[in-house]
Amino acid sequence: MNRVLLNGQTIASGDWGGNPTDTSGRTFNYTLLSPEIIGLMEVYKTPEARIDEGSIGGTVIVHTRKPLDLPKNTIRGSVGYNYNDRSEEGNPRGSALWSWKNDDETFGALISATHDKQDLARAGIEYFGYTTGANIPASATITGDGSDVATARVPAGINSAFFQQTRERSGVQGALQWKPNEQNEFNLTGLYIKGKYNNFSESRYVCPACNNDLQKVTSANVQNGVVTSATFGDGAAGQPYAQLDANYRESTVTTKSLNLRHDWSGEKWVFTTQVGDTKATGGKNPEYLMKFLMTDGGYNYAFDGQNTAVNYDNGGASNWTLPGSPAGLPAGSQDSSAMQAGGIFYQKSTDEEKYFQWDAARDLELGPFTKLLFGYKYINHNNGVDARGNRINTTDAISLTQFNPGTTPSGLYDGLGASGDLTTWPTASLNSIRSYLLSQPQGPYRPDYGSSFEVKEITQNFYTQLNYETGKWRGNVGVRLVDTTDKSLYWQTADGGTNYSRVAETNDYRKALPSFNIAYDITDDAVLRFSLPR
């Protein structure tokens, strides 16, 4: 839960859509910077009044290099190579920096660029929570230690996941520095990073908690109140439910930042003024979603807390199909007779912050107190998501065999305690999924009300802080006053999702955030710290 600041300021954060609950991260990923431009990293393990509030674990401030601090015409670079043993793919990466300054060392310019590419593959065995065995029929053969099967825990779903992604990122960072005299210094810094995060995820899962499937259990083993294994048959109770998903996301994330800083240094006073803007966009543009259902046969599962196995009566590609939809239905019909193949989904996330900051610092010789700091910061932050999608139904019946099927790579699930059909199963071709969905009649696009929102936040901060030091003791004491106004815009329904209306909600709150830090140098290599912040 650290917070990362670049030159003391927040950098907007975008998301490629892999985590629907976190559309923009709370902190900037500084690994997107070229290593040559990083001059210093400060780590604050406890809050201080002068530092932006909001961190739980601490604050990391990344300081970039200044052209006047480097020799004229400095050139630096680095190259590397990334290899992923799951995807069995590797790619080079590189970065470079050039810095220049005039002979008077009053003006300088710096530029740095970076590029890297990664081909990733990940695999996982996932459990979708648990239910109870209350619906397991009395006709099922129950073995084990005698625990009551009706109250025993049963996996609600067991999934075998396969994720592939190509991450290709390019960035440029620049700085202009002007120092007309000893008292004044101007710094203009900026960055632009663009990354493509296209990815293809497939998963195949059984779902004991779906469609009263527990009534299809023919045998089960119960140990310590858990149904550790069970067999599901496709007899009179019907076909057990199992699904294979194939989702392809196209995603581009951009991050931009521009900061202008002026420092005036007197004999004892230092005044600093900063103004800046940072913006990031991301999301899915678009996401293609497709499913296949198991047509015939049952399955069995077994697990012991470390190892998991699932085996199908027929796990081949020809057994994963979808029936056709009746003719004459409108595109995207939600009629119960229509079979949904999938859909196309768009989601754009935006994160932007504009700010103004003024800081003052004065050296002191007042007993143990060594420095007085105070200042003000204004922040205007907007964050939101706009999402929409459609429904695409089948026309004719389809089978996975029509989608250029392959097989999960050998060794993909090594070390995960997986066996049976969890490790080797048929996969669909990315291009065939995309082509099929685009070729089908397109249902109308509708807003995704639950995923769409906008939050506008204006924050004003006032702070004062005193630093002290005497002997082996040092620390600081201060308070940060925060005045925040939030306006949230979201969609709400009163009839179960038939109609939605946009709701605006405003909240204002003021908080005083005092902090006290003290450190004692036990030895040259050991420090005892104590902090009391709010």
Question: Could you explain how this protein is built, in words?
Answer:
This protein has one helix at 430-439, and strands at 2-6, 38-44, 58-64, 74-84, 89-101, 107-127, 130-132, 141-144, 153-155, 158-178, 184-196, 199-206, 217-223, 226-232, 242-249, 252-265, 269-294, 299-303, 308-312, 320-322, 340-366, 369-389, 392-393, 398-399, 406-407, 418-420, 426-427, 446-447, 453-470, 473-492, 501-521, 527-531. It is mostly beta strands and 534 residues long. The chain has one domain (2-531).
Q: For the CA atoms, what is the radius of gyration?
A: 29 Å
Percentage beta strand:
over 45%
Largest sheet composition: 6 strands, antiparallel, barrel
> Which regions have little confidence, pLDDT < 50, spanning 5+ residues?
none
Count of individual domains:
1
Question: What is the total tally of β strands?
Answer: 32
Major beta sheet, strand line-up: 10-11-16-17-15-12
| Overall pLDDT score | 94
Termini gap: 16 Å
- Counting helices, strands and paired strands, the structural category is mainly beta
> How many DSSP helices?
1
| Helix percentage range | under 10%
What coarse outline follows from CA principal-axis ratios? elongated
Protein name: TonB-dependent outer membrane receptor
Keywords: Cell outer membrane, Membrane, Receptor
InterPro entries: Beta-barrel_TonB_sf (IPR036942), TonB_rcpt_bac (IPR010104)
Main location: membrane
